[in-house]
Amino acid sequence: MSEKQTHTPGPWVAMGKAVYTESDNPTREILWGGHNTRSASDEEKKANARLIAAAPELLEQCKLFEKCLTHLINSGDSGADLERDNLRAILDKVEGETA
Questions:
Q1: Which of 22, 36, 40, 75 could make an SS bond with 44 (beta carbons 3.0 to 4.6 A apart)?
Q2: CB–CB of 69/87 below 8 Å?
Q3: What CA–CA distances, in Å, run from 44 to 15, 25, 35?
Q4: Could you give the count of Cα atoms lying within 13 Å of 21 in the half-sphere of its Cβ?
Q5: CA-CA distance, 68 to 27, in Å (whole number)?
Q6: What is the pTM of this model?
């Protein structure tokens, strides 16, 4: 049985239209916005690169938020159930737990 593939460890940094990781020596390119399957402005490509570069940090914050929601639910806040379930579904997609 093969080991589960995970994403390149962060931190990642956006530089123009490209995303690089600072976790390797030397720095490794994660994404370059020069080749797209659709037409996009340079500003859109740069915005996409910034969002993608923030992905490892966003993932860690989502995991922390899921723990906070679980604590609220265990403390009797039943209004957080749906939000936690939605967040768990997103985390499962990100981590390859669902198709």
A1: 40
A2: yes
A3: 13, 29, 13
A4: 15
A5: 34
A6: 0.72
Spatial separation of the C-alpha atoms in residues 65 and 22, rounded to whole Å: 25
Q: What angle do CA 28, 30, 32 make, to 5 degrees?
A: 110
The two three-digit tokens of residue 47, written as one number = 């915005």
Q: In a structure prediction context, what are the per-residue pLDDT tens digits for the chain, which is 99 residues long? A: 456 667 777 788 888 878 888 766 556 777 766 555 567 777 887 888 888 889 999 999 999 999 999 998 998 877 788 889 999 999 998 888 765
Contacts of 62 (CB under 8 A, 6+ apart): 87, 90, 91, 94
